[in-house]
Amino acid sequence: MNGSCAAPISPASPVGLECWKGGTIPVEMLGYLTFLPIERRPYRLTLAPYSFLWLELQQKHQPAEVIMNFVEEARLNATAGWEGMFDGAVCERLESVNFPEYLPKQRWFAGKSHHIQSTRILDWTIFNSSNSALVLVAVQFDGGLSDVYLMVLAMAFGDAAEDLQRTSPTAIIAPVISDRGPGLLHDGVFNDSICRELLSFIQNERDLETRHGCIRGLRGKAFQDLLGTIADPLPVRRGSMEQSNTSILYGDRFILKMLRRQEPGLNPDAEIGRYLTEKARFDRVPPFAGSIEYEPLADGEPSALAMLQGLIANEGDGWKWTLEELARYFETCAPLPFPEDLRADLEAPIELPRRPPLQLARDHVGTYLDSALTLGRQTAELHLALASAMDDPAFDPEPLTAGDLQVLLAGLHQHACRVFDVLKEHVAKLPDEVVEIAAAVLSHRTRILDHFSEALQPKIFQIGRIRIHGDYHLGQVLRVKTGFVILDFEGEPARPLADRRAKQCPLKDVAGMLRSFSYAAYSSLINYAARHAGAIASLEPWARLWERCVATEFLRAYRETIRGARFLPENADDFRKVLDVFLVDKALYEVLYELNARPSWVRIPLMGIMSLQL
Predict the structure, then answer these.
(1) What mean pLDDT value characterizes the chain?
(2) What pTM does this model have?
């Protein structure tokens, strides 16, 4: 078991995993439950039928007495309050020692692969009646890269410090000494009073001057309806799954997303969420309830520090649910011979049908097809809502000009050529079962590049640009009783903010979801085959059938719902050509990722490229 693992088991049975990460603690990634520490012996687990665990192995924290020794050795002088903390020798120590040690330990810190050269406090303000401070910290890395992070700092003393040290040691930044005695400087998100003050800041639309700017609370139109008539303070709990942000949950009403990594400019998640809630009245997203904005005094764009949304009662995300459905599907299909009547259809590319799939296929794939139909329809409804503005330049649909096409084509060519070159370098290192399909994809290099040029001709690509999701996959949707709710409009995290806010062809979203279906099918097959030797060969046709049927239903519903929209080709052949461009581009992105992370899995995107039969 490495850094993280999934272990689907069926039927229910106890297992002993050979784990050699002694001294680490498994943490379940979906509910973030902490398991017993791993020792140097088989790790015992029992799972229910068709279930799985996704675990992250975290380092076991130091014993309290070790931490206390550190506390006694290096205390920051906090007797002068926050003004003294952010000035002189104390500030220098924070910037040179404490922040560089603290930041890489945080889940939301995106610079773990880079060495921190220095940190610097850019701006700050006292918050919550002097009990905390909001701070913007610039982080300079070796090589010239830099980022800015939002931190909420607080100090704990006495019993509160002991509780924090015991329950959340990674939230501790440094030991301090003040008029209240010894204490701990820590992440203020772990203080319920500060979390409630953040909500109140939005509710009351307060303003707060910083040393070099201003922070404002913005209450959304949906706030009061979401809050209701509750008199007592909402209970606070902290989310635990985020990689790049921090979530604070308030009862069953709100979720506040703190945007840790700061970028100047409008945050697309807050911008799109507000537009869909307040203008488009689209109810398939968490309702926008407010935000906290930062405006610098000097020249510079404002940025979002946090976004508040309504909390959605749900049955889990689409990815987890799909994997559970596929586990049952493979268990059912494993003893069955694959129907010869369906085998020929697997070799042809996925079409854009107007009719439901054959009953024989539906009998095997089951009710997931209805969910795919619903998701396809709601995806189209999302795109129609995003294109419905007529008086907002940020959302008005725009035509793709010849110049736009040339820029798009150049980017596609550059990305494809880079991936092909890397794949060629790695072919000799790939597993034997992957080499053949990798060679086949490389042999299609010219054909794929030519398809980009053919499909992006102005006479074919007569479509518009609209705001889109930008990072659309099964993990970005929640299952609810009436279908799905779509989350997280920040776009691909690695891309610059301007790119994530740019208007694009909505078929990029469609391609992202289709590739997610493919990944679900084949990752589930790999997990099943890991427990059943020799199962891949017999079950691969079933995986292809599932992917094909689900993708077909998704596309059928999307096309029927979007029909007549001026921003997409009406002709089915042109629609298919353009969609294939984005499918190939997405699969090539996956190839590059898998070559660096999981070479044995690179077969999944390579098969996706070959299935298009360009």
Answers:
(1) 88
(2) 0.85
Question: Tokens representing 449?
Answer: 């590049």
For 50-108, write each residue's pLDDT tens digit.
Answer: 555 656 666 554 444 434 444 455 799 999 999 999 999 999 999 999 999 999 999 99
Alpha carbon separation from 75 to 71, 119, 176, 181 (Å, rounded): 7, 19, 5, 11
Reference 374, options 223, 179, 513; nearest CA is 513
d(CA 399, CA 568): 10
DSSP string, 137-193: EEEEETTS-EEEEEEEEEEEEHHHHHHHHHH-GGGEEEEEEETTEEEEEEEGGG-HH
Give exposure, 368-378, as e/b (b: 16+ Cβ within 10 Å).
bbebbbbbbbb
Alpha carbon distance 308, 326 (integer Å) = 34
Q: Which domains does the chain have, with CATH numbers?
A: 4-59 (2.60.40.1180), 64-187 (no CATH), 194-310 (no CATH)
How far is residue 474's CA from residue 492's CA, in Å, rounded to a whole number? 14
149-194 residue pLDDT tens: 999 999 999 999 999 999 999 999 999 999 999 999 999 999 999 9
Total residues found in the chain within this entry: 614
Give the integer Cα–Cα distance in Å for 455 and 573.
Answer: 10
